[in-house]
Structures are given as structure tokens and as C-alpha cells.
């Protein structure tokens, strides 16, 4: 289970044995971290800086309410509705706000569209900037050194790690999110989806396709 | 600053490890780390730029060996001590030794949805015309500020083209140090892969950064 986590930890310089311990235990380093966070939280609560009930609501929000299905709805609508697509081009923040996806880490959104000749990929080399209202919390790899170091220099190598190969002639356009603007990739709409509803189209849209490390799913996976 | 956070173009970190999109957290403590970081941000005692700077001033070896939530927690501890909200001794003992100091706001559970939905607006009205136009060639300055900056090393000294003008935005380099917003025009500047990485680079690669006006000079 969770091989990717072990692999992730292998990239860290003072890793331990790499055996699979499951969720609750990751060896001494992370146990120490769990204790450290717990102590910090209790200090902050005791001092009256944070309301423990607010912490629970924050977690619940990002666990259950704000995630990449929001972005999938934006993409599906962009595919199905040319007026909405044009609105995204003019003012993506407002267009996305109209669907109810707004707020922290998505105050200023720009959408970038993949075409047969151009593939877009988004990274934040300096930290972990990511469009939270439409994609939720970033995956571990997005915030980690392997992706942040390589996306701007070797994006085809990055794509290979995701099992994606593009023609050599396809231009690769990488957006390094160095300010408060957040970029959302509109992947190419798969052929053979004419007449699909927005809900069906949204099922084709993966999180990685909206970062630019993946493509939309094969329609046969959704409607065999 | 030229810290470990400025990762673009470094090598040797190994392959990227994809993960399923249903996976939100990898341990319970990560949830608490997220929540305390956001809740303390909501007190209004520091800006997002100040938090970023706290993280990037971790020792490079510590930064590179830490997961991102670990970086957040280590950064948060630094901020709490720097703002005199928690003492180093309290962090050592893992308990409060004195009452809290006044903070601007305490985020209440009932306010969380509205506060998240509102976010923070970083754009400001323009008070002067933009210096550069779309299509203009510009060079990212060679600069090595010891404080916070959002100009990554890999574009410094490189020539690109202004592709888009975002508007006027607060300036992180001053915000991070409590020196005010000093809003500036913000541009998308696009660089060719070979300009950044040399002749071996992919001929059809281009990379852009969002760059504040004072990061740029005419080319």
C-alpha cells in the first residue's frame, strides 16, 4: 500500500529504512513531527490565538469541500460552452467565481488552454503556489523538490514520470507561479465527446491534466 | 534570498512520484499542521510574504530534508517567536508558560467559510502607466537580495518577452519585511528554453515567470 509515499521518503536525505509502516507510523522522524505539531497546537489554543473548532472546520473544508472536482467543472463548462470559455479568457477569476469557486489562493486566476500545438504546465519553483479553490490542496509531488526543480528545465522528463509522451514538435509552455496569480490548465477536449453533458465531460478531467502533468482521460474509460 | 527554496534547474532529486487525487493527507498531524498554519495566518499578524520568507530562511539542509508540512510548521514556529507570540522556551517545553499576547483577530469556526471564500486581494489601483508593453523584450536583472524576492535565480540576467500584464500588485520584497505594500506592475515574462538552459535545451520549450516591474530592465 502507498508505495508512492515510501518512494517519496526515499528522496529525502535522512530517511530511515523505507519499510511500509502504513499511515499511523512513519518512523521516529514523523512521530517527532506529530508530537511537535500537537504541542504547538496546544500552546496556540492555550494562549487564545486559535479556536480549536475553527481548526476542525478548516480541515473538513479541505478534506471534503474544496478539491479538484471544482476545477473539473470549470474545464467541462469551458469545453461545452463557448461563451464561458471566452469569459475565462477575458477574466477567469470572475468566470470561475460565477460557479462558486472563489477565495484563498485563487484570488487572481488565469486559465491557459492546451491546443494540438501547445502543452501548458504549471509549477511553483519557489514554494507551493496552487489554485486552491479549483484544485484543493496540492499533491505532495507538486510541493516537492523533484517537480519544482525539473519542471522548468526538463518538462518532458516530468511528463515521462507521469507516463505522458507528447510529439517532439508540441511546444511546451511552463508557467512558474512566482506571484499571487494562479494558473489553471484547460486540457484538450478528447475527440468523440460531442454532445456529452458537462457532468460526463467533467469525469474526463483529472487533477493532473489541470496542472499540465497529465492529459484528459480516454472517453472509453468513462463511457465504454 | 538565494535559499534552498529556489529550486528551479537543480538536479539530483530523483523521479516525481504521482499520487491519486483522492489522497488529501498522509498523516493526521498534516491536517493539524495545515489548520494551525491557516488559523495563525488569519490572525493578521503577518503577510503571506512574511510566512514564505520564514520558510525559505530555514537552513538549506533542513529545508531540503523536510516535507512541505514540516517546512510550514518550522516556518510557523519561527514566525511565532519572531512576533513574540510564543517563546523559544515554550516551544522547547511544548506548553504555554505565560498568557497570550493580543492578536488582531482570532478565526472563529463560524467565520471559516466566509474568510476562505474572501481570500486576500493582492491587486491595487494603478497610479502610473506600465513601463513595459506586451511584446517588449526585457531582461531580468542580475540581483541577489539578502531578503525575500520572487525572482528565481534561473531567470536572472536572461532576456525574455513581456507576454501579458497582470495589473498592479503588492510587492513581496517589501511586504515580507513589514516595509509596506509598494505596489508595482506585474508582468508575465516568457523566456525561451535555450535562453535559460543553453543549446542542449528543448528547442520548443518556453518558461514564464510573473515578474514585478523593478525586477526588469529594457533589453
From TrEMBL, chain A:
Keywords, comma-separated and alphabetical: Lyase, Metal-binding
Keyword Cytoplasm: no
Region (Disordered): 1-30
E.C. numbers: 4.2.1.84
Biased composition (Basic and acidic residues): 14-28
Start and end residues of each Nitrile hydratase alpha/Thiocyanate hydrolase gamma domain: 32-213
Coiled-coil intervals: none
A Pfam entry, by short name: NHase_alpha
Catalytic activity: an aliphatic primary amide = an aliphatic nitrile + H2O
An annotated Gene Ontology molecular function: nitrile hydratase activity
InterPro entries: CN_Hdrase_a/SCN_Hdrase_g_sf, CN_Hdrtase_a/SCN_Hdrlase_g, CN_Hdrtase_asu/SCN_Hdrlase_gsu, Nitrile_hydratase_asu
Highest taxon, organism lineage: Bacteria
NCBIfam families reported in the protein's UniProt record: nitrile_alph
Similarity remark: Belongs to the nitrile hydratase subunit alpha family.
Name of the protein: nitrile hydratase
Source organism (scientific name): Chelatococcus albus
Gene name in the database record: nthA
From TrEMBL, chain B:
Molecular-function GO terms, alphabetical: nitrile hydratase activity
Annotated EC: 4.2.1.84
Annotated Pfam families: NHase_beta_C, NHase_beta_N
Top-level EC class as recorded in UniProt: lyase
InterPro entries for this protein: CN_hydtase_beta-like_N (IPR049054), CN_hydtase_beta_C (IPR042262), CN_hydtase_beta_dom_C (IPR024690), Elect_transpt_acc-like_dom_sf (IPR008990), Nitrile_hydratase_bsu (IPR003168)
Domain annotation Nitrile hydratase beta subunit: ranges: 122-218
Keywords for this protein: Lyase
Reaction(s) the record says it catalyses: an aliphatic primary amide = an aliphatic nitrile + H2O
Nitrile hydratase beta subunit-like N-terminal domain boundaries: 1-110
UniProt similarity note: Belongs to the nitrile hydratase subunit beta family.
Task of the protein: NHase catalyzes the hydration of various nitrile compounds to the corresponding amides.
NCBIfam families: nitrile_beta
Protein name (record): Nitrile hydratase subunit beta
Organism: Chelatococcus albus
Lineage of the species this protein comes from: Bacteria, Pseudomonadati, Pseudomonadota, Alphaproteobacteria, Hyphomicrobiales
Gene: nthB
Amino acid at each position: 500500500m502507498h508505495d508512492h509515499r515510501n518512494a517519496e521518503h526515499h528522496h529525502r536525505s535522512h530517511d530511515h529504512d523505507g519499510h511500509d509502516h502504513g499511515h499511523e507510523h512513519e518512523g521516529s522522524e514523523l512521530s517527532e513531527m506529530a508530537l511537535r505539531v500537537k504541542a504547538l497546537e496546544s500552546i496556540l489554543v492555550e494562549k487564545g490565538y486559535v479556536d480549536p473548532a475553527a481548526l476542525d472546520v478548516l480541515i473538513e473544508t479541505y478534506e471534503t469541500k474544496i478539491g479538484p472536482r471544482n476545477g473539473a467543472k470549470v474545464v467541462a463548462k469551458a469545453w461545452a460552452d463557448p461563451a464561458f470559455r471566452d469569459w475565462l479568457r477575458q477574466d477567469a477569476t470572475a468566470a470561475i467565481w460565477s460557479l462558486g469557486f472563489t477565495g484563498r489562493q485563487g484570488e487572481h486566476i488565469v486559465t491557459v488552454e492546451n491546443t494540438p500545438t501547445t502543452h501548458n504546465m504549471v509549477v511553483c519553483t519557489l514554494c507551493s503556489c496552487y489554485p486552491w479553490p479549483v484544485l484543493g490542496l496540492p499533491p505532495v509531488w507538486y510541493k516537492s523538490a523533484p517537480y519544482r526543480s525539473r519542471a522548468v528545465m526538463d518538462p518532458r522528463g516530468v511528463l515521462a514520470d507521469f507516463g505522458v509522451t507528447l510529439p517532439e514538435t508540441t511546444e511546451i509552455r511552463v508557467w512558474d507561479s512566482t506571484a499571487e496569480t494562479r494558473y489553471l490548465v484547460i486540457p484538450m477536449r478528447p475527440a468523440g465527446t460531442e454532445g456529452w453533458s458537462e457532468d460526463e465531460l467533467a469525469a474526463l478531467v483529472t487533477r493532473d491534466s489541470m496542472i499540465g502533468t497529465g492529459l484528459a482521460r480516454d472517453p472509453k474509460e468513462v463511457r465504454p | 534570498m538565494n535559499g534552498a527554496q529556489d529550486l528551479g534547474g537543480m538536479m539530483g532529486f530523483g523521479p516525481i512520484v504521482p499520487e491519486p487525487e483522492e489522497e488529501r493527507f498522509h498523516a493526521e498531524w498534516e491536517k493539524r499542521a495545515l489548520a494551525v498554519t491557516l488559523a495563525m495566518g488569519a490572525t493578521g499578524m503577518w503577510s503571506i510574504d512574511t510566512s514564505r520568507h520564514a520558510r525559505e530562511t530555514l537552513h538549506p539542509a533542513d529545508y531540503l530534508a523536510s516535507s512541505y508540512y514540516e517546512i510550514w510548521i518550522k516556518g510557523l514556529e519561527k514566525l511565532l517567536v519572531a512576533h513574540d507570540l510564543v517563546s523559544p522556551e515554550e516551544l522547547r517545553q511544548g506548553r504555554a508558560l505565560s498568557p497570550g499576547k493580543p492578536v488582531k483577530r482570532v478565526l472563529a469556526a463560524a467565520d471559516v467559510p466566509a474568510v476562505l471564500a474572501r481570500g486576500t486581494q493582492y491587486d491595487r489601483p494603478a497610479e502610473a502607466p506600465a513601463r513595459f508593453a506586451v511584446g517588449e523584450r526585457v531582461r531580468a536583472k542580475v540581483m541577489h537580495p539578502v531578503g525575500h524576492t520572487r525572482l528565481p535565480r534561473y531567470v536572472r540576467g536572461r532576456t525574455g518577452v513581456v507576454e501579458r500584464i497582470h495589473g498592479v500588485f503588492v510587492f513581496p520584497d517589501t511586504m515580507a519585511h513589514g516595509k509596506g505594500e509598494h505596489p508595482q506592475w506585474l508582468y508575465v515574462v516568457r523566456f525561451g528554453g535555450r535562453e535559460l538552459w543553453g543549446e542542449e535545451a528543448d528547442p520548443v520549450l518556453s518558461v514564464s515567470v510573473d515578474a514585478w516591474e523593478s525586477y526588469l530592465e529594457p533589453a
